[in-house]
Amino acid sequence: MSTPSTSATDPVIDSTPHRKVSVAVLFVHEDELAATITAVQAQVYETTAVTLVGGGAVGEAMASDLGLEFQPSLTRYLSVVGSEDEYVWIVHGDAVPLRDSLGALVFEAERNDAGLVGSKILDAANPSLLEAIGAATDVFGEPYTGLDPGEVDLEQYDVVRDVAYVSGVCLLVRRDLLKGLRGTDAKLPPVAAGLDFSQRARVAGARVMVAPSSEVLHSRRCGHDVASWRELAGRQRAMLKAYRWITLSWVIPVGLILAIIDGLARLLLGRPDVLRNVVFSVGWNLYHMPSTLLARRAVAAVRVTRDEELFRYQVAGSIRLRSAAAAFAERFGWVIDEEPGVITEEELEGSDGRTASIIVATLGAVVIALASRHLWFGSFPASGFSLPATGDSASVLGSYAGGWNPTGLGSPEPVHSAAAAVALVQTALFGWSGAQSLLT
User: Fold this and answer.
1) Does residue 102 sit in helix, strand or coil?
2) CA atoms within 13 Å, Cβ hemisphere of 82
């Protein structure tokens, strides 16, 4: 875990104006909950109430045992949260905030007039590793954290800044904003839920920021049972709710094409699950389209900015295609360099290599057939030389050998050599009219 900085920009909790904060702990798993409640109640910054949200009968029983208030959903919680509370602190039930986490969030929210502030999320098993510290996206909703796998926290990202979205594991939200947006989306998995809520907050005119001085340990239990395609489906749902129709008119078809290209590319690398995830995510969104449209109307009611506000915090291009290109470069680099412990040329000559070659050859043939379909089923443009010059291949060969050009009404211009080649092949194939397409 990183050592707290002592720079002048760090928050001084004692000088923070005290704002009333209510806490909503989202039930994740009963084994993780006790540690989360203990950490929340041990905060230096005093809260008004702690409510356990969700978990059904198990959650209600645990709330009773721990002496907490209980609400079955975040929607119900928002209907009863006190009007005197200026902020709501949403914490996952598998997270352990450090003692000054809430104070740092309130300080930065007040200092920067932010409506939504997220924490630095660290790996609970190894607190020196970063899990999330705010992130960007591309226009297709693909997240870009900028973090390498297993990157160590050396305070290299400890800057309070506006971001595209913050992790849904730990959020401080203005109560009026949270109620106006009708809370987080319970249908979405953790990463997509944070992205979705952050985008809706931004189009509602709120600043979305990350406060690195607020540190939270996360055991990631909330993502253990989440299928990989659910995050993709959640990001697609977030776009459908936040973007205007004019943006969706090109983002949806282009994004779908890029997803299919990425899926086919990953198929060559032995990853059929990527293409399957695209199919599952589209099907899930079609099934939940009625609720998505209802949520979209709710966003439209509070929208004060255009989509350009979202574009300001997005990276250019497609993160999905960049990732696919990097995967291909890595695979080919392994083959060329023959690094120890990775795929070698000898291994590629085995059954896996033959299977990959068959897949590559098949896809290549399909691409070539699609790209050249107009040559076989269409006609050639009537500009320049159109092949063959006449239906009589013998006449074309005679014109090429010498004499007047019968197709040019006595023109002295000689017949193009390509026409002679087509006529020669057509003669050898007993006058087959497809000779020009074959040669082309």
Assistant:
1) helix
2) 15
**Paired tokens of 408:** 């040019």
- Cβ neighbourhood burial of 393 (10 Å; 0-12, 13-18, 19+): buried
Instruction: Read off the tokens for 419.
Output: 């026409």
- Residue 342 structure tokens: 């990775």
CA pair distance 200, 203, nearest whole angstrom: 5
Contacts of 70 (CB under 8 A, 6+ apart): 51, 52, 53, 59, 60, 63, 64
Give the Cα separation of 169 and 93 in Å (integer): 9
Q: Looking at residue 98, what DSSP letter applies? A: -
Residue 192 has pLDDT above 60, yes or no: yes
Kindly report the length of the chain: 440
Q: Which amino acid is at 3?
A: T
User: Is-contact 118 162, C-beta < 8 A?
Assistant: no
pLDDT in tens, 396-439: 666 666 554 545 545 555 666 667 777 777 777 776 766 666 66
C-alpha torsion sign, points 176, 177, 178, 183: positive
The pLDDT assigned to 247 comes to 92
Within 8 A by CB and 6+ apart from 336, the residues are none
Q: CB-hemisphere CA count at 13 Å for 128?
A: 2
DSSP per-residue string spanning 253-297 = HHHHHHHHHHHHHHHHTT-HHHHHHHHHHHHHHHHTHHHHHHHHH
Output the DSSP codes for 103-162.
HHHHHHHHHHT-SEEEEEEEESSSTTBEEES-BEE-TT--EE--PPTT-B-SSTT---EE
In angstroms, the CA 216 to CA 403 distance is 89
Between the CA of residue 212 and those of 4, 178, 190, 367, 397, what are the distances in Å?
10, 22, 19, 48, 80
Q: DSSP readout, 148-213?
A: PTT-B-SSTT---EE-SB--TTEEEEEHHHHHHTTS--TTS-HHHHHHHHHHHHHHTT--EEEEEE
Cβ neighbours around 295 below 10 Å, total:
22
Q: What is the mean pLDDT of residues 143-157?
A: 88
Q: Which of 250, 198, 264, 259 has its CA nearest to residue 229? A: 259
Percent of the chain surpassing pLDDT 70 = 75
Q: For residues 302 and 201, what is the distance between their CA atoms, to the nearest angstrom?
A: 9
What is the value of pTM for the model shown? 0.71
